[in-house]
Amino acid sequence: MKLYWSLIFKKYSNEELLRHLNNPIRExxxxxxxxxxxxxxxxxxxxxxxxxxxxxxLIAIDSEQLQxxxxxxxxxxxxxxxxxxxxxxxxxxxxxxxxxxxxxLIIISNLLHFFTFEECLEIxxxxxxxxxxxxxxxxxxxxxxxxxxxxxxxxxENYFKHFFSTTELDLIFPNPLFESIYCAEIEQTDSKxxxxxxxxxxxxxxxxNNITDAQTIERTKSEHLKNKKQSNIEVIFRKT
Length: 240
Hints:
Structural class: alpha/beta
Number of domains: 1
Largest sheet: 7 strands, mixed
Number of strands: 7
Strand order of the largest sheet: 3-2-1-4-5-7-6
CATH architecture: 3-Layer(aba) Sandwich
Strand content: 15-25%
CATH class: Alpha Beta
């Protein structure tokens, strides 16, 4: 995956990341309370970059230092971004304590599906403890319609530990502690640009691992891209 992240940094400019970003949080920006914005498992967070010119404190949290380094370089590449407002933290969530702050927004995008449902229930309790009335929590997870679910069941793999329904997310962030103010289930196939990027990533992977057989490379691409329909759930919860 480090090769994948490096290629993302190389191939996608900040402008491209933001152009393709669907950020429903913006619909509720005027309702956000005072406080910091944190992205847990941020990667090269398009969401934080979208808020990079604000006066709010932005906290980027990831267990991979490489991702934090890439994100910091992205922030520094645009003079409009207020780097003095940023904090980059290498933390292993949820084991490591999160900063003691008043949170306006907590982003948990494409992270919870790496935990079991039982672990997610505990994460929900943790988020409840560190949030305050009015804190927004933006969650993106793979739904139970995601292409990888069937693939994992057939191959008995466990890369993603859980695929979600909206009902399960409501159990993790339960009423009356939270209210759901936005919910969308999104299904889409990869664009041609994403397909070409994936092929280039596989080419680089094969090169690094000395895989030279053309048939093996093409078979890997075909298997990786076959029936690849993304199915995600996006929800914004508000702490009550």
